[in-house]
Hints:
This protein is of the alpha+beta class and 123 residues long. It is 34% helix and 11% strand. It contains three helices and four strands. The strands form two sheets. It has a two-stranded antiparallel ribbon. A two-stranded antiparallel ribbon has the order 3-4. The longest helix is centred in the first third of the chain and has 20 residues, at 2-21.
Amino acid sequence: MxxxxxxxxxxxxxxxxxxxxxxxxxxxxxxxxxxxxxxxxVAGEIRPDGADEGPEWLGSMNSCQMSYMAxxxxxxxxxxxxxxxxxxxAYEVIYLKMLLELIGITxxxxxxxxxxxxxxxxx
Length: 123
């Protein structure tokens, strides 16, 4: 039982490290490229039929909670209350980029960044 728990923990760290290293994206192999590390794509980017799923790729972290969980699972973990994480699949960013494109403006390359607030809020 202890060995199985250790393997599960190590697996979680590998996944957390991978997500953080890939700018908060879950990566997978493509159906159309060799199955190796050199050909990884964001999970859900290309459907098995070859259609592009973007811009709402399933493997992009779309909420602060998802990104913080990946960071917490990683080897570095969450060591500072001011740790910042990114959410490349955040819906508000996707929709803002789509709106800019609709009105003929090329959107800049940006992503949403989340930070835990350590300042109490009273109301």
